[in-house]
Amino acid sequence: MTPEAMADSxxxxxxxxxxxxxxxxxxxxAEGEQGPCSxxxxxxxxxxxxxCSHCPLDARQVACCPFARALAQPVEVLAHSPSYEEVNVxxxxxxxxxxxxxxxxxxxxxxxxxxxxxxGCPHTRLLKAMAWFHWPFSTSTETLYRALGTYLLGQHLxxxxxxxxxxxMAGLRDIYRNLRLVNLGMAGRLRxxxxxxxxLNGLVxxxxxxxxxxxxxxxxxxxxxxxxxxxxEEE
Length: 235
Known about the structure:
4 strands, 7 helices, four-stranded antiparallel beta sheet, globular
């Protein structure tokens, strides 16, 4: 990977709190799945601790839940802060700085989204293509657009390689149904870990976005039609 591509693989979130302290967390999308599970990690990170009901991993072979392991450091640092606390967040990504004054809940929801996509969880791995074009603090409509666009482009690229393509997007619905179950599982783990509700509420916000996207996929009601009006004209 070239130095330019390596730089484009790093997403850094920097939090500035009202009391003056700062905390930053970096996600490297090029690293792939994480290494061995350290004994120093908390018990709630272990795969067998409230393991998701649909998890395909075997706790006898995999020590840590990939998503929980990715959350361990943010939870340790931020679990003492309430979700409604206002923070200034700067996201450094692809040579840009994206700044937002928002609640810790919303900021964490944005960070957890890219952490989940990059962590190596079998149910989030197809979201990693979206993470390479991460858009911090995206709305439900923006998330729907990115999810549809990413999935359909993925199907086009599959077709170019002689593989079958899912133009009905049934697979995308399955991805988001599984993602909702993952979010519920992570919330159960965090209830056992967080002294305050900031990390948990970040996951709740993330799940609401997943629920909105799944609802739009199952019962599309023209949310994006106005942006594609030119496509509907007869040539």
